[in-house]
Amino acid sequence: MRLGVIADIHGNLPALEAVLARLAGLSVDRIVNLGDCASGPLWPAETVQLLRARAMSHVRGNHDRALGAASPDGLGASDSYAWRNLDAEARGWLGGLPFQLDIGVARCFHASPKDDDTYLLDAIEGGRLVAAGPQAVAALLGPAGAALVLCGHSHQPRLLRLDDGTVVVNPGSVGNPAYHATQPSIHLSESGAPHARFAVVDVTQAIAIEHYAIAYDWERAARRAEINGRADWAHALRTGRVSTSR
């Protein structure tokens, strides 16, 4: 079985369209979306509509959970924009997605098996995300009970094989290549390039992983962010880096 693995779309419709077009030519048997579908100043409603129209499996990200709230009160700017641009049915769909799915030998969740807002393959060092060590990943993962673990959340493409043979994959972010976060401490996540990221995982025999970084019209996405008052997103979309003018 070949799985197309996507995550962290964040309402970036042209990036999602480009990724799905590329996946259509890669002979995947199934697509799994690891969550954070719509949050951001881009195209939340159109992105959710496209995801729901395609045959794929989904798990719920921390921002999907936030968008399932009854009101936008207390939400951050990106979540609030998306909440107000989604109808109640779309918000309910996002909030109702499962926390975890098992697909064959793959265990799929957004961030970690404990919650949807804890990095699994990443650690914070010097205010930036770096690859976490295998012992820390194994401790957080616990007895995986699966040969393959698929996660997102950090927007960083990662691959790690643990001592027990478990393979852990983060496909990177389809639609948001860099961000500034304040929890659990202030830090940056930067991919260093504006490309849309995804992975193809082949579990036919041995587990094989292909990471992809593809071009799409990121200038269109950046202009959309600027129109909606988010110069920080526009910079990230054009460069894959966080603006130093924050």
From TrEMBL:
Gene3D superfamilies: 3.60.21.10. It comes from the Bacteria. Transmembrane segments: none annotated. Residues 1-182 form the Calcineurin-like phosphoesterase domain. Pfam families: Metallophos_2. Belongs to the metallophosphoesterase superfamily. YfcE family. This is Metallophosphoesterase family protein. It comes from Bosea vestrisii.
